[in-house]
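Entry for heme C complex. Fields follow.
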Amino acid sequence: MRVSNLMIPAALVLAMAACKPAANDAKTDAAVATPHPSAMPVALTDAQLIERGDYIVRIAGCNDCHTPGYPESGGKVPKAQWLVGTRLGWNGPWGTTYPANLRLKAADMDDAKWLAYTATLHTRPPMPDFAVRDMSEQDRLAILRFVKSLGAGGEPAPAYLPPGEKPPVPFVEFNLPPPPAAAGAAQAKPASAG
Ligand code: HEC
């Protein structure tokens, strides 16, 4: 009895002490608990969307492939030349792909068309279409608004070449090992394999 009489008030004091700072820090806690701040449904102004789009194309690597000379110059390409697509081919088992002119692409699209297009974007490698599909709607919209703010510019990228067709230079070549399934088929199947 004596012990529990002492325990109850002690527990209450502890609970009250725990509540006080929690109430004061409610704002901070909410911010920390949000796993993906950019996915929050906060309405951005037009200017803020453009600013965010500018930020995303820099950190998500869009410029790395879609802006001529961007990686080679350490990102020192004037903004007016961003995202016009390149003539550097990406050659691999999928054939040869060329990073598209996103300035011309964006000029052709309104918000609704772009959001539907990017939500289900499927391209050939090495375009990270999966990363675009995973972006929040707001981030995809921010990209469109930023690219549109640059204006239409440049030429369309060269046409895709099918596998087996040797691309003209310059191109990056992926010399990949055979896929695991093909490699496995070439060997005797272990007894345990279905
Ligand atoms: C590793 C290089 C690379 C990176 C990084 C990259 N792209 Fe691409 N992108 C490509 C290539 C190559 C194609 C052409 C794919 C094809 O022909 O199927 C392409 C195609 C596209 C297309 C389709 C355009 C069309 O008309 O077919 C869109 C949209 C696009 N990229 C947007 C982006 C955005 C937005 C980013 C940044 C998040 C990005 N890309 C990052 C290489 C890249």
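NOTE: The radius of gyration is 26 Å.
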